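Sample 3 of the quickstart, ligand 3,4-dihydroxyphenylalanine:
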Amino acid sequence: MMIDRLKKIENEAVRALQNARDEETLNQLKIKYLGRKGLITNIFRELGKLPAGQRPEVGRVANEIKTLVSKELNSALKRISREKEREAQPQLDITLPGRRPVIGTLHPISQVIDEVCGIFSELGFEIVEGPEVELDYYNFEALNIPKEHPARDMQDTFYISDNVVLRTHTSPIQIRVMEKQQPPVRMVAPGKAYRCDSDISHTPMFHQVEGLMVGEDISFSHLKGILTIFVHHMFGEDILLRFRPSFFPFTEPSAEVDILCVICHGRGCRVCSHTGWLEVIGCGMVHPEVFRVVGYDPEAVTGLAFGMGIERIAMLKFGIEDIRMFFQNNIRFLKQFF
Ligand code: DAH
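Result:
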């Protein structure tokens, strides 16, 4: 009888404790079962009224149940305080859409460099690079630029020391490649160049792509053909170009490539200084003196060379009037070239 009552109390207590959701309910349950007038406490009080033979057994079971209910009470307390903690934390809304990371894009100058190199690469040109801090020898001397040449003037060249400069063009890469490699050579070299100059169309740091092709029968027609293909790929098949005689110490003959102004189509505007033409590439046939310096036989090989300013090409392609826009890192400007 008594044992049945105890079992019933146990079942009820355990179920109630497990279902409890707050500390208040737990306290009430504690009082109900284990308090001074609690259901389990009462059993102990009633022990004396039982026949002597039943007392030890009922006492033992009552003790067991008391321990069990105390344990249940403790774990319910822990559970409830854990639940409280969890509720206090900000709730994570897993239905919210994810936040997309901002993905960067190539700088317009890098895009144009890639495009230029891509065109020459399809024509079989290898892409090479060279140092930006360069020896006077490679930047000037080996390119047949004598000591008194105006390009060496302090106001153009950044000197690191007497014989070390920031390269003023990418042409020294021609020398470095020919020193290491026997003909035939077919290379383009993109990179930064530096000149002490700054206005709407000049920045102290700018980019060039250099080209060089050396072999047994390379002629001026090859130069014209290659640069015509290039201009047509870069600016469109309908773009007119002309080769105008010019001078560079490292080429003979030398020329500059003009394209019909992409802004006014030859009518004359501010961008082309009302000439209708835009100068985009310097070029020529490699000077025999340059071949001699790198140990090539000028009687056995000929070569064509060219160099172009990337910012200038980018300005024409994108219709940008101030070169400095490229280097101000204004994200709203750069975003237009996604
Ligand atoms: N290095 C020249 C410059 O910076 C550009 C140039 C002209 C490069 C003629 C060449 C060339 O390779 O043949 O103005």
